[in-house]
Amino acid sequence: MDAPMDVPVDHPMDVPVDHQLEKLAVPVLLDRSAAAFGGRTALSFQGRRWTYAQLAELVERATDGLQRLGIRPGDRVGLCLPNTPYFVIFYYAALKAGAVVVNYNPLYVARELRQQIVDSSTTTMIVPDIAAICDKVLGLLPSSGLQRIIVCPFAGVLPPAKRVAFTMLKRKMVAHPAWSHQVIPYRQVVAAGAKPTPVAIDPGDLAVLQYTGGTTGLPKGAMLSHANLSLNAQQATYHMPSMRAGQERFLAVLPFFHVFAMTSIMNGGILAGAELILHPRFEIAAVMKSLRQDKPTIMHAVPTIYNAISLEAERKRIAFPGLRVCVSGGAPLPAEVRERFQKLTGCRIIEGYGLTEASPAVASNPPDGEVRPDSVGIVLRGTRVEIRGIDDITRILPPGERGEICVRGPQVMQGYLNREAETRAVFIDGALRTGDAGHLDADGYLYVTDRLKDLIICSGYNVYPRVIEDALYEHPAVAEAIVIGIADSYRGQAPLAFVTLREGHATDGEALRTFLRDRVSPIELPVRVEIRETLPKTIIGKLSRKELVAEMAALKAT
Hints:
The chain is α/β, with parallel strands linked by helices.
C-alpha cells in the first residue's frame, strides 16, 4: 500500500464511518451480488449478455491468469479500455489479485500515456485489439517501464452476427500484434480456469490510482483505497432509497475510466445487482435506440448529454417510459437543460456534486425528496462539508456565505502519489479543499457557484461564469453556452461567451447580448457573444474552457 505522504493527522479518513456503511474490499461488491443475483444479467453489450454468475467466473479466471503472469499485491495494472465487458472483468480481477488499478484514457496520445505509465509505475496494461489504441500502447513497451500488454479481442464480446460483420467490415480497425511473453492474448490469460490464490485485502489498501489535474497543475494520481471506493458506492446507494436491488438497469454511456462512471455506474450498479448496459462511446443515435429498446431505469450522464438527448427527443417526439431516475454530475446542470429534459421525457434529473479526490460523490439532491433550485443537494451519509473563506481559508463561514467548499468523509483520497507538496496544499486542517466556490443554506443544501480558477475578476468584483451561462440557456435559440475570462485593459478581466445554436434557430451575438441585459448585471455582461458550430468537450462530454482560454491567449499574443 502507498501510504499518504505527510497528510495532517486529522485526515478525513479518520472521520467516523456511519454504522450502516461497511469498509469493504471492492471485489466483495461483486462477490455479494453474484451470490444474491447469480442468474440475473450483469452486463449487456451490443445485444450480448452475461449473468452475475458468468461475470464472477470470468473475474476468477482472469485473477488466476494475472497471478500466473506474476502480478502480485501492489503491482500496477493499467486499464486502457472503452466500456466493454473486458473493463469490468479486469478491474475486479486486478483488485482481487491485490493489484492497484490505474485508469487510462484511450484517447490520450502516446506522450500522455507514457507520462502516466512512468509516474504510476504501471507494469501491465490491458488494451483492446483496436489498432488506434493497441498500436499506440505497443509502441511504449520497450521504454516506458511496461513489462507486458494483454490484448483483448473486440469481436470476442460481440453477438455472433455482429462479430461476423465486425470481422468483415472493420478489419482495418483491428491490430495484429506479434504474440510474445510481453504481448499476451486475452484467451491465454483466462484459459486455465483454475481458482486464483486468495489474497488478503485490507479496506485501507490502495485500490485505484485515478489521474486528475486536481485543483491546479499537471495530472496527479489520486490514491483511492478500497474503503474510499466501496464506501462511496454505498453512500450513493443509500442516498437513493427507491433503488430496487436486483431489478435496476443502468445505462453505462460515461466511460468507466472516469471516476464518476467507475463509482456511480460500475461499482454502484454492481453493488445494487443491476444490469449494466455498456456503450463504448457516446453516439446519440445508439443512445436513443438503447433508451427505447433496452429500457434502462437509471441513467448517469453529464449536462451536455442530457442536452443532446433533449434536442433529439424534441425533434423526433420520443419518450422513455422505463427511465425512473437520471443523475447529472461532472459539471453544473443549467436549469433550462434540466427543465427541458424533464418536460420531454417525464423523468426527473437529480444533480449531484463530487470530485476525483472524493471518489467522487460528495452531495446529491434526493431522488424522492425536495430538490431546491440551483442546489446540488444534501451531503451524502458520513460526509461533512465546510465553507471556508476564499481570502482566509482558516475561517469557517456560516450558512449563506460564499466561500471555498471543503470536504471531510470516508470517501476522501489518501493523497496524491509522489506529490508531497500538492497533498499538503489540498488539505486544510484535515479537510479536502475542492477549489470550488459555493455556500450552504440553513437546511444543509449545498450550492456550487463555480470553480475558483474559473472565477473572473472584473474591476475587483467576482463574476461567476455559470451565472452568465445559465442566463444564456434561457434563450430559445441557445443549445450550449460557455463563458471564459479574457484580459481587459480597463477592468483587468472581462467575460467572453461562446454558444452553439439549436437546429432551426437563428440569432447573432449582439442579439444575445441584448437578451442578457435584463438577466445579468452590467459587470457580468459579456464583451461579446461568439456563435460557433461546435464547442470543445472533454472525453465524458463536459464543455471545456481550457481550449477556448488557450485560443484567446494565442490570438492576443499574435
